[in-house]
């Protein structure tokens, strides 16, 4: 068998020498190749040995595209750097909480200084945004400053303090006399700061500044004066609100001291009287009265009429120093300061007699005479008492009086 010429796959066309086959190629493989090249019909296939691999050129590397990032990664890649929670990104539409300081108002200043310092004081005050309403020197100028202060046209006054009382002292006194709606008083002095502060306090000034006047000294003092004005305005507003609330409380409490007081007012007064009685060691008692109606129950409305008549008789029988309130639809409670149990029992009998003397109410063929059952409770002078204890003792005594059919019970 002759060796046929062949070419290796992947090489250029052309004849190769028989020596192109390796020497160690098996004879069966060589014969199969010869038959294939010569067009033989009989093909013998043999597995190529592992040691023989075609010398193919390596394909060029294919550039692989990186997989697209997940949606969360895309969002985080485009999002700006995260800010602290207190400063969220502006594009998120969040509102950042910031501490907003109140706007400092521009003050109307009055300046009373020596001739050598009045001009520099005006320039420094105007440089920090405030207004010079008046600037004077000398005795005649002090009176003009006082007139401006009294007209209410001044928010702050800068006064140069002399070594002895004089016009400057009169200006400070005029400003302080307008309390609570007075201007802020700023004392100006020279020399030692500690000594100047003592002189300003003695004169009644609110603040003190040192000479010579310039923006560096005036600016913080003017800011402090503006803050004082804001705080005083807030205090005045709070006082006005307090007065309105007190007026409403007076309306609720009823201006008639002989009338029935609301329970809240009665309890507050009782607790105050208990503390006073303990401190000053005077007697204190309470009286409890209940409207009593014989069975069977009366028609609708009769109980209310009897309660109203009993309450009217009660408030016209107690003393001016006593305080009464209505507990519920049938009971009245009376505070008896400076009264021991004997005196409280006597007042209780007078109230029971006053109610019993009223005209009866006639309805549906029946007569309903007004009647109350009473009980008094108290303690010895200086003894520890409380609202709860007095109520408990009086309620227990009233229940005992009702069970026994008595008109008045005393609980020591």
How are the SSEs placed, and which strands pair?
Elements: H1 27-38, H2 71-78, E1 108-112, H3 115-127, E2 131-136, H4 138-150, E3 156-160, H5 167-176, E4 184-189, H6 193-203, E5 207-210, H7 215-253, E6 260-261, H8 263-280, E7 284-291, H9 302-315, E8 323-326, E9 331-337, H10 341-356, E10 361-363, E11 366-368, E12 372-379, H11 387-404, E13 408-411
Helix pairs in contact: 3-7, 4-5, 9-10
What does the model show?
The protein is of the alpha/beta class. Among the domains are: 108-231, Rossmann fold (3-Layer(aba) Sandwich); 260-411, 2-Layer Sandwich (Alpha-Beta Plaits). 42% of the residues lie in helices and 16% in strands. It is built from eleven helices and 13 strands. It has a six-stranded mixed sheet with strand order 6-8-9-7-12-13, sandwiched between helices. Strands 2-1-3-4-5 form a five-stranded parallel sheet, with helices on both faces. It has a two-stranded antiparallel sheet with strand order 10-11. Helix 3 (115-127) packs across helix 7, helix 4 (138-150) runs parallel beside helix 5 and helix 9 (302-315) crosses helix 10 (341-356). The protein is flat, with a radius of gyration of 53 Å. It starts with 26 loop residues before the first helix and ends with a strand. 26% of the residues are buried.
């Amino acid at each position: 068998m002759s060796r046929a010429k062949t070419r290796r796959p992947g090489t250029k066309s052309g004849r190769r020498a028989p020596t192109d086959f390796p020497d160690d190629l098996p004879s069966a493989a060589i014969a199969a190749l010869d038959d294939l090249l010569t067009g033989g019909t009989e093909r013998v296939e043999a597995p190529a040995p592992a040691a023989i691999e075609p010398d193919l050129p390596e394909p060029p590397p294919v550039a692989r595209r990186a997989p697209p990032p997940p949606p969360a990664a895309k969002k985080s890649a485009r999002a700006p750097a995260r800010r602290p929670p207190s400063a969220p990104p502006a594009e998120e539409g969040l509102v950042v909480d910031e501490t907003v300081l109140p706007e400092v108002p521009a003050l109307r200043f009055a300046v009373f200084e020596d001739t050598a310092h009045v001009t520099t004081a005006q320039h420094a005050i105007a440089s920090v945004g405030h207004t010079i309403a008046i600037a004077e020197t000398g005795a005649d100028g002090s009176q003009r400053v006082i007139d401006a202060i009294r007209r209410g046209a001044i928010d702050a006054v800068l006064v140069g303090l002399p070594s002895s009382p004089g016009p400057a002292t009169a200006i400070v006194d005029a400003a302080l006399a307008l309390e609570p709606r007075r201007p802020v008083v700023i004392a100006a002095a020279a020399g030692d700061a500690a000594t100047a502060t003592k002189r300003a306090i003695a004169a009644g000034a609110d603040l003190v500044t040192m000479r010579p006047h310039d923006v560096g000294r005036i600016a913080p003092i003017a800011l402090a004066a503006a803050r004082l004005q804001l705080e005083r305005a807030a205090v005045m507003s709070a006082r006005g609100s307090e007065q309105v609330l007190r007026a409403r409380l007076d309306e609720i409490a009823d201006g008639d001291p002989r009338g029935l007081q609301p329970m809240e007012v009665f309890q507050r007064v009782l607790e105050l009287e208990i503390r006073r009685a303990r401190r000053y060691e005077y007697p204190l008692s309470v009286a409890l009265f209940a409207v009593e109606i014989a069975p069977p129950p009366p028609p609708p409305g009769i109980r209310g009429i009897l309660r109203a008549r009993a309450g009217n008789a009660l408030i016209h029988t107690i003393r001016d120093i006593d305080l009464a309130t209505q507990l519920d639809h049938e009971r009245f409670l009376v505070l008896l300061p400076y009264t021991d149990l004997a005196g409280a029992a006597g007042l209780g009998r007078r109230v029971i007699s006053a109610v019993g003397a009223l005209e009866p109410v006639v309805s549906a063929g029946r007569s309903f005479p007004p009647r109350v059952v009473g009980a008094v409770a108290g303690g010895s002078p200086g003894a520890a008492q409380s609202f709860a204890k007095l109520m408990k003792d009086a309620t227990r005594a009233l229940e005992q009086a009702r069970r026994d059919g008595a008109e008045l019970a005393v609980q020591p």
